[in-house]
Design a protein that fits this description.
binds 1,3-dihydroxyacetonephosphate, 10 helices, 8-stranded parallel β-barrel, TIM Barrel, alpha/beta, single chain
């Protein structure tokens, strides 16, 4: 498992140029030793590039097209995101699956295009409350992962997976560290079995009601390579605290490994 924890903020359809600048101010005053990025709405990418360009904070987007160009009104290609310096793109978020009806196949095609354009896709998978209650979690995760494996093959090594149980998103109902650890172990084992990727090759993040109070306990799980943060990523002080927790846990894992 790579020792540097990754913290990705998902601003969803929130934020403004002023908020990008506020984060820039904060980062310039000093930043914890962790990898961190904010995935902003498309109109804020230019501001993110200008403001974060000379800081350790990276930036990204929340969706991209499965095509390079053409008659796709309203869509944005992975290549366009690269032009604005984006490093990451969140794909397959449960809100896009639910609100825009995105299928596993469409998501895998977007992921493939993002990898080809040199972006790191942060691919969200996770079960709904009904699926959890029906003991379908493993089957749902396997289905979502195997579509990616079929489409991407060895390019799976280039993606980040985010386990986001749908019931934990925006609910304050964070999955317990033991559940997260168990589920991340299952995801790693599935990738090992089907793609031959050893544990740690694909970073597996946890997302769902992460905040400054629970980040330390979640990030100290060895199977957790980082967190995907929604609401708390809009608050500079909260986001900084989560990044500090990530830096602490990274340092602990590095010293244990030495
Ligand atoms: P919250 O952190 O607000 O629960 O959102 C999680 C999420 O959807 C991140 O992608």
């Amino acid at each position: 498992m790579t020792a540097t924890k990754l913290v990705i903020g998902n601003w969803k359809m929130n934020g403004s140029t002023a908020q990008v600048r506020a984060f820039g101010e904060l980062v310039r005053r000093g930043w914890p030793a962790c990898e961190a990025a904010l995935c902003v709405p498309h109109p804020l990418l230019s501001a993110a590039q200008t403001v974060f360009g000379a800081t350790p904070l990276r930036w990204g987007a929340q969706d991209c097209s499965a095509d390079d160009d053409g008659a796709f009104t309203g869509d944005v290609s992975a290549g366009m995101l690269r032009e604005f310096g984006a490093r990451y793109v969140i794909l397959g978020h449960s809100e896009r699956r639910a609100v825009h009806g995105e299928t596993d196949g469409q998501i895998a095609a977007k992921v493939q295009r993002a990898v080809a354009a040199g972006l790191t896709p942060v691919v969200c998978i996770g079960e709904t409350a009904e699926e959890r209650d029906g003991e379908q979690t493993a089957a749902v995760l396997r289905r979502q992962l195997l579509q990616l494996v079929r489409t991407l093959g060895s390019d799976m090594a280039s993606i980040v997976v985010a386990y986001e149980p749908v019931w934990a998103i925006g609910s304050g109902d964070t999955a317990a560290p033991g559940i997260i650890d168990h589920t991340h172990g299952f995801i790693a084992a599935t990738l090992a079995f089907h793609v031959g990727l050893s544990a740690g090759t694909v970073r597996i993040l946890y997302g769902g009601s992460v905040n400054s109070r629970n980040a330390g306990a979640i990030l100290s799980c060895k199977t957790v390579a980082g967190v995907l943060v929604g609401g708390a990523a809009l608050n500079p002080a909260e986001f900084t605290e989560i990044c500090k927790a990530a830096a602490r846990c990274s340092a602990e894992e590095t010293s244990e490994a030495a």
